Amino acid sequence: xxxxxxxxxxxxxxxxxxxxVPDCTADSVDETCAVFRLVNEARIDADLEPYAWNTELAVAxxxxxxxxxxxxxxxxxxxxxxxxxERAKDAGYDAAPRGENIAAGQQDADQVMDSWMxxxxxxxxxxxxxxxxxxxxxxxxxxxxxxGLRSAPM
Length: 154
What we know:
The chain starts with a helix and ends in a 5-residue tail after the last strand. It is globular and about 40 Å long. The longest helix is centred in the middle third of the chain and has 16 residues, at 55-70. Residues 1-16 have low confidence and may be disordered. It is α+β, with helices and mostly antiparallel strands. It has six helices and four strands. The protein is 43% helix and 17% strand.
C-alpha cells in the first residue's frame, strides 16, 4: 500500500515519466525547435511578440504526443479524460494553459506549420495575443503545441 501511494505521488508530480525535451532557447536542430522558430516567425510577421519557450508546456506536449501514439488515438482529450490544461498542470506548468494544436502525418516542421496556418482555429492559437508561452512535442509524425499565458511580474 505504501509503494502504491509513493508511485501515485511521483506520477502526480510528473517526475517519473517526464520525457527529455529540447531547450529551444538554444540553437537546437530538433524538429520541435524548428516549429518553435516558425511559430515565432509567423508571430513577428503579424506584428506580435514572439512566444517564450516553456519546458513544462513542452513536457505536456511531448507526453500527449507519446500517449496518442502509444494508445492509437488522435484527440485533444486523452483516453483517461484529461484536457490539455490538466496535462499542462500535471507537467508542472504554474501559469494559465490557453490552448493546444495537434496534427498527425506531417513529415517535418514546414509541413505541420503549413497545415496549422491554413486552419483558422490552429492559426488563431498560433497568433493569439492571449498566450505568451509555448511548448512543442513530437513522436512518429504526431505533433502537439501547448500554449500558455504567464503574467508579467509586477
